[in-house]
Amino acid sequence: MHIPDGFLDAKTWVSATVISTGALGYSIAKTREQLSDRQVPRLGVMAAFIFAAQMVNFPIAGGTSGHLLGAALATALLGPWSAVIVLATVLMIQCFVFQDGGLTALGANILNMGVVGVLVSAGLYGPLSRLVKGKTGVVLASFAASWASVMAAAFMTGAELALSGIPFAVVLPAMLGVHALIGIGEGVITAAVVLAVLNAGFSPNWLRKGDVCSE
Amino acid sequence: MFAVNKKLLAGLFIALLVAVFLSPFASPHPDGLERVAEDLNFIQRAEGKEVLASPIPDYSMPGIKSEFLATGTAGAIGVVLTFGLIMGMKKILVKKQDCSG
C-alpha cells in the first residue's frame, strides 16, 4: 500500500507529513520514558522481520497481491509506541534504498500504515486479548487487529487520494474492497507469528512508566 | 555493547531467511493500491515522478543477472540496514538511565 510520488497533491502530502512527524516525535518521547537500551534489539529484530515479510507478496483474487504491513504484529509484541518507530523505520529504508513508496508520500505512508495502523491495532488487541483468555484470545485479537489495521490504512490512503482529486465515492470502495481480502492474509500471518513468538517464551512488552530498570 | 540474546539472534536469522529465500517467490502481481490505481486509471500520475533515485530500486540488486540472486541480495541488505538503523537510533530512543539505585 506504499503510495508513490505523484499520487498525492502538495496540500495532502504536506499535511500528512506534518501529522506523522508529530506522531513519530510523540512516540519517541514515549519510548524514551519507557525503553531501556537492552530492549532496543527487540525493536531491531521486529523491524528487520517486517522488512523481510513485506517483500513476500502473497497472491489474492483477481491478479492482485498483498503483503504483510506488520502494524498489528509490532503492536501485539512491542506495544504501540515502539511499533510506530519500527514501522516508520521500515518505511524509511524502503523509500530511500528500494524506491518503494515516494519521498513526498513518505509522511502519508508512515501515517497510514504506521501511525493509524498501530493505533487501530492497539485499540483492538489490548482489550480483545484481555477479554478472551489464553491462546484463543491471542489468535482472535491478532487476527481482528490485523484485519482492522489494514482496512484503516486503506481508508486513510483512499481519503488522501480523494483529497488529491480522485473521486472519493469510487476510490474508497475500491481500496476497502481489495484490502478486505489482503487483511485476511495479514491476520493469518500475524496470528501465526505472534503465537510462535509467545510459544518461544517471549514476553510482550507493552511498556509502562517505570519499567526501564526492571530488566 | 548490546545484549542480543539467542532468541533474538534466531529472530534476526529468520528475517534473513525470509528476505533471501522466500522473497524471490513473491507474487509479481500488482498490490492492492496498484490494482486500484490501474482500475481507476490514475496509475499514470506516478510515471516519471520519482523524487529520489534509490540505489536498489524495486528490491533488485543492480548488476546481478539472476533475478533470484538479485532479489535475495537486496533482501539481505535490507534486513541488515533495517536492524542497523534501529540499533543506530539507540541514543534517540533511550534516555540515559540511572538504574543503580
Q: From the helix content, strand content and strand pairing of chain B, which structural class follows?
A: mainly alpha
Largest interface: A-B, 72 and 66 residues
- The CA-CA distance between the termini of chain B, in Å, is 22 Å
Radius of gyration of chain B: 19 Å
- Average predicted local confidence, pLDDT of chain B: 91
How many strand elements of chain B? 0
Main sheet summary of chain A: 2 strands, antiparallel
Q: How many structural domains of chain B?
A: 1
Strand content of chain A: under 5%
Give the strand order, joined by hyphens, for the main sheet of chain A.
Answer: 1-2
Q: Would you tell me the overall average pLDDT of chain A?
A: 94
Strand-pairing-aware structural class of chain A? mainly alpha
CATH architecture of chain A: Orthogonal Bundle
In percent, how helical is the residue content of chain B?
Answer: 40-55%
Report the count of strand segments of chain A: 2
Keywords (chain A): Cell membrane, Membrane, Transmembrane, Transmembrane helix, Transport
Transmembrane segments (chain A): 12-29, 41-62, 68-93, 105-125
Subcellular location (chain A): Cell membrane
GO cellular component, one term (chain A): plasma membrane
